[in-house]
Amino acid sequence: MSAYTVSRLALDAGVSVHIVRDYLLRGLLRPVAYTTGGYGLFDDTALQRLRFVRAAFEAGIGLDALARLCR
Protein backbone atom coordinates (compact mmCIF):
# COMPACT_ATOMS: atom_id res chain seq x y z
CA MET A 1 0.00 0.00 0.00
CA SER A 2 1.26 3.45 -0.89
CA ALA A 3 0.85 6.21 1.69
CA TYR A 4 0.18 9.67 0.31
CA THR A 5 0.26 13.02 2.05
CA VAL A 6 -2.13 15.73 0.87
CA SER A 7 0.57 17.29 -1.28
CA ARG A 8 1.63 13.96 -2.82
CA LEU A 9 -1.99 12.98 -3.44
CA ALA A 10 -2.58 16.30 -5.22
CA LEU A 11 0.58 15.94 -7.29
CA ASP A 12 -0.20 12.38 -8.39
CA ALA A 13 -3.81 13.30 -9.26
CA GLY A 14 -2.81 16.45 -11.14
CA VAL A 15 -4.82 18.82 -8.95
CA SER A 16 -3.92 21.52 -6.46
CA VAL A 17 -3.54 21.01 -2.72
CA HIS A 18 -6.42 23.49 -2.36
CA ILE A 19 -8.73 21.13 -4.27
CA VAL A 20 -7.75 18.16 -2.09
CA ARG A 21 -8.38 20.17 1.08
CA ASP A 22 -11.75 21.35 -0.28
CA TYR A 23 -12.74 17.75 -1.03
CA LEU A 24 -11.70 16.75 2.49
CA LEU A 25 -13.94 19.45 3.98
CA ARG A 26 -16.84 18.29 1.80
CA GLY A 27 -16.39 14.67 2.88
CA LEU A 28 -15.38 13.48 -0.58
CA LEU A 29 -12.06 12.14 0.73
CA ARG A 30 -10.99 10.76 4.10
CA PRO A 31 -7.54 9.91 5.43
CA VAL A 32 -6.97 6.23 6.18
CA ALA A 33 -4.40 7.01 8.88
CA TYR A 34 -2.62 9.88 10.58
CA THR A 35 1.03 10.56 11.28
CA THR A 36 2.17 11.15 14.84
CA GLY A 37 2.13 14.85 13.94
CA GLY A 38 -1.55 14.63 12.97
CA TYR A 39 -1.17 14.80 9.19
CA GLY A 40 -3.63 12.74 7.16
CA LEU A 41 -2.36 9.85 5.06
CA PHE A 42 -4.17 8.44 2.05
CA ASP A 43 -3.97 5.17 0.14
CA ASP A 44 -4.27 4.15 -3.51
CA THR A 45 -8.06 3.94 -3.16
CA ALA A 46 -8.15 7.61 -2.14
CA LEU A 47 -6.08 8.50 -5.20
CA GLN A 48 -8.52 6.62 -7.46
CA ARG A 49 -11.46 8.29 -5.74
CA LEU A 50 -9.89 11.73 -6.15
CA ARG A 51 -9.37 11.12 -9.86
CA PHE A 52 -12.98 9.90 -10.22
CA VAL A 53 -14.44 12.87 -8.32
CA ARG A 54 -12.39 15.32 -10.35
CA ALA A 55 -13.43 13.71 -13.65
CA ALA A 56 -17.09 13.70 -12.59
CA PHE A 57 -16.86 17.36 -11.57
CA GLU A 58 -15.27 18.29 -14.90
CA ALA A 59 -18.08 16.38 -16.65
CA GLY A 60 -20.61 18.67 -14.97
CA ILE A 61 -21.66 16.85 -11.82
CA GLY A 62 -21.80 19.26 -8.88
CA LEU A 63 -19.70 18.76 -5.78
CA ASP A 64 -22.77 18.71 -3.52
CA ALA A 65 -24.25 15.86 -5.56
CA LEU A 66 -20.94 14.02 -5.49
CA ALA A 67 -20.69 14.49 -1.72
CA ARG A 68 -24.14 12.94 -1.27
CA LEU A 69 -23.11 9.96 -3.41
CA CYS A 70 -19.84 9.47 -1.53
CA ARG A 71 -21.37 9.36 1.95
Automatic annotation (TrEMBL):
SMART domains: HTH_MERR (SM00422). The keyword Transcription applies. Keywords: DNA-binding, Mercuric resistance, Transcription, Transcription regulation. InterPro entries: DNA-bd_dom_put_sf (IPR009061), MerD (IPR011797), MerR-type_HTH_dom (IPR000551). The keyword Transcription applies. GO terms for molecular function: DNA binding. Residues 3-71 form the HTH merR-type domain. Pfam families: MerR_1. GO terms for biological process: negative regulation of DNA-templated transcription; response to mercury ion. This is HTH-type transcriptional regulator MerD. It comes from Vibrio parahaemolyticus. The gene is merD.
